[in-house]
Amino acid sequence: MTRRICDTAGMRALAVVLAGSLIAAGCSVNSYKIPTSELTRLAQLPPEARGQHVRVIQEVVASDVPAAPPVSGQTEIVIFPQINVGGSVGGGGHHASSRGGGGLGVGKIGGAGGDGKGAAIAFLVLAATAMITAAVIEGTRFDGYAQLHPMHPVHLIGKDGSNTVVPLAWLDANAAAWAETAVVRSSEGPWRELDRAPLSRRGFTYGMYGGTGSLRSADGALAMGAAWTVQLGYFPTQEVGILGSVFFGWRDNKFGATLFETRYTGEVQVLPVQLSILHAGLYGGLGAAYRFEDAVKLAGNRVIPGNESSGALVGGAMLQLDINTRIALTGRLGIARAHGEQMHDALIGISVY
Questions:
Q1: CB-based contacts of 55: which residues, under 8 Å, 6+ apart?
Q2: Is 261 helix (H, G, I), strand (E, B) or coil?
Q3: How far is CA 245 from each of CA 129, 268, 325, 339, 346, rounded to the nearest angstrom?
Q4: What is the rounded CA–CA span in Å between residue 190 and residue 84?
Q5: What are the CA-CA distances from residue 225 to residues 29, 135, 252, 340 (Å)?
Q6: Helix 113-140 and helix 9-24: axis angle, to 10°?
Q7: What are phi and psi of 157, to 5 degrees?
Q8: Model confidence over 130-179: pLDDT tens digits?
Q9: Spatial CB neighbours of 253, under 8 Å, sequence gap ≥ 6
């Protein structure tokens, strides 16, 4: 009898992409972006006070802008009232340059509990490598507030790709509105990091969680086993995120054979509750579930493979403890409905934003 094994090429490819893309990002650099809202705020402050508390986000890959002459603590604060962001800085200072712009039904699918478990472990090793890389990068780069000299050079990049550099004190509302991106370099003037910003989820996110979950065998026995979830997605707002999720769970059945469960779901997370560094919310999603179980004996020595596929509904509660601006310790208590039955899991891990 030919034995079909679980095709895990997709799992392995996804893990390689996750690890490779994060490792390729490299180490943090000495350039920092100023968010657009912060640039607008700074333009409304007295020029001599603008450098006291500036929100900056350290880049992973440095923006491609020309170097500017650095300033020092003894640099005199000179105020110019007007900036021509389309060409040169008023008063004959720096000049602009340019760059390029520009449901599933239940069905038998073959036996492969042990094979599925082995492939899942390989996937998780690669996913953990990606997680460690992401956590190191996001944990070491600075995202918060810094103190700068009022004459610190600010590199402004327009929507058309052109760029100019102006001292922070010369920034005005028109220049702030023109700029699509604003970059400062810590090497171009006095630089003092102040405090980190609170947890910010907005943007891409990657998470990995492990724990325990209930898994039901084909013979009806319910018991706890190892459970893991890996997620990748995007938060368009601080409170709401949309993610793709892969779940793996396994245990031995009473015959010493492997029961392996995997679920692929799309998930929405909503975390509206915050109390200091503690956050709480709910998640829910749907997708597909697959159960692979090596041979199971029933009454009369009848043997069934115990393998099937079905739709999956998932949901539960989330708790987060923010570690810094981009990393949170996350706990999940979940319920899943698949194969006509209900399963539970409790997981804890790291979310990187």
A1: 34, 35, 38, 144, 145, 197
A2: strand
A3: 17, 10, 23, 18, 15
A4: 26
A5: 43, 27, 8, 19
A6: 10
A7: -120, 120
A8: 999 888 888 888 999 999 999 999 999 998 889 899 999 999 999 999 99
A9: 217, 219, 221, 259, 293, 294, 296
Query: Which residue is it, tokens 């490598």?
Result: 129
In what order do the strands lie in the sheet containing 54-58?
163-167, 153-158, 179-185, 31-34, 54-58, 143-148, 191-196
In contact, 64 and 201? CB cutoff 8 Å: no
Residue 343 gets the label, from left (phi > 0), alpha (psi -120 to 50) or beta, of beta
Could you tell me the CA-to-CA distances from 302 to 219, 290, 295 in Å, in that order? 11, 22, 10
Model's pTM, two decimal places? 0.72
Nearest to 32 by CA among 72, 69, 66, 63: 63
> Positive or negative, the Cα torsion across 143, 145, 147, 148?
positive
Q: Which residues contact 219 (CB under 8 A, 6 or more apart)?
A: 253, 254, 296, 297, 298, 306
Residue 65 — pLDDT band, cuts 50, 70, 90? confident
